[in-house]
Amino acid sequence: NRQLHLVRRPAEKITPLDFRLVEAPVVNPGEGQILVRQKWLSIDPYLRERMNDAKSYLPPQPLDEVMAGGGAGEVVQSKHPEIAVGDQVIGLGGWQLFATMNGAAVARADTAQAPLAAFLGAAGMPGITAWYGLRKIIAPKGGETIVVSAASGSVGGVAGQLAKLSGCRVVGIAGGDIKCRYVVDELGFDACVDHRAGDFDAQLAAATPAGIDGCFENVGGVVLDAVMRRLNPFARVAVSGLISGGYDGQPVPIADANMFSTARVRMEGFIVSDHRELWPEARAELAGLIASKRLKYRESIATGLESAPGALIDVLEGRNFGKQLVELP
Ligand code: NDP
């Protein structure tokens, strides 16, 4: 087996030197367990937070152990009564080629509906994050204006498309012209604003002439502040993530909390893994939308286990374009 271990905790920015490639024997599955030959690793922003030795909703990633993370692959040995050799599954296999996991902790991917890798993206944890935040927190009504940040990403792309399916005016926020054009032309958002543009605030105002009723927030910082200033009374902000800051232990401020009282705005954070009971329903709906071509997504694919640290750095610096994956050939 080949594995990537975290060998030191990054100060602020991570580097490939924080990891070490390790050869280790494959662990045979015990009763109730399966052995998965992983084909895809899911590279997600939350992995950065796990590298810190800080109190959070997840325990810190232990040093000198396999880096945790989602993956997808094929079952090559099974000692679980309901999982067969050859099944395509998703689970928390970590950064390694072969993962021994409890059968009860994986989900089967319905590859008749969508490709295996989609169950790590639009029909996986990120898509379900979008589904939960949009449906359960923003709960949009037709005709409302919904803003989505990191709009070209795996979470943002799904959130915006679901809002469109609910009959909303949907405005994306993304970094750069190419991502913005993709968000409008391919994903079908009504408009997209470049957060790096000098006149970002003015462009956001022009794209939201009736104000903002709901915000699916992935970024925080100046992006969220600009949205907050345009919230309508009774607007809902679903805080999915604040990828622009916080990894160095510094607080992520909100410029104007006055909106909570004057505009009766509701801001609610959530962690998708708190709502596991909804995952099968959400996953089935999202996979069905992919199968019927009503839900689109794109992927950034790096190749080989060694590329995983660089792929995570790309996500944290906005160089990925769509769901970031590592393919294990
Ligand atoms: P994405 O594919 O959206 O990749 C991250 C994107 O964030 C980058 O491509 C970049 O897009 C943007 N970004 C990065 N740094 C900055 C910055 N400093 N300022 C502005 N934008 C930045 O990743 P995901 O779809 O996987 O995740 C999106 C968000 O969802 C993250 O905040 C993540 O933590 C959150 N999340 C939350 C979950 C939950 O349970 N609450 C579960 C899963 C994800 P651009 O170039 O357009 O700026």
TrEMBL record:
<dbReference type="InterPro" id="IPR020843">
    <property type="entry name" value="ER"/>
</dbReference>
<dbReference type="GO" id="GO:0016628">
    <property type="term" value="F:oxidoreductase activity, acting on the CH-CH group of donors, NAD or NADP as acceptor"/>
</dbReference>
<dbReference type="InterPro" id="IPR013149">
    <property type="entry name" value="ADH-like_C"/>
</dbReference>
<protein>
    <submittedName>
        <fullName>NADP-dependent oxidoreductase</fullName>
    </submittedName>
</protein>
<dbReference type="Pfam" id="PF00107">
    <property type="entry name" value="ADH_zinc_N"/>
</dbReference>
<keyword id="KW-0560">Oxidoreductase</keyword>
<feature type="domain" description="Enoyl reductase (ER)">
    <location>
        <begin position="14"/>
        <end position="326"/>
    </location>
</feature>
<dbReference type="InterPro" id="IPR041694">
    <property type="entry name" value="ADH_N_2"/>
</dbReference>
<dbReference type="Pfam" id="PF16884">
    <property type="entry name" value="ADH_N_2"/>
</dbReference>
<dbReference type="InterPro" id="IPR045010">
    <property type="entry name" value="MDR_fam"/>
</dbReference>
<dbReference type="InterPro" id="IPR036291">
    <property type="entry name" value="NAD(P)-bd_dom_sf"/>
</dbReference>
<dbReference type="InterPro" id="IPR011032">
    <property type="entry name" value="GroES-like_sf"/>
</dbReference>
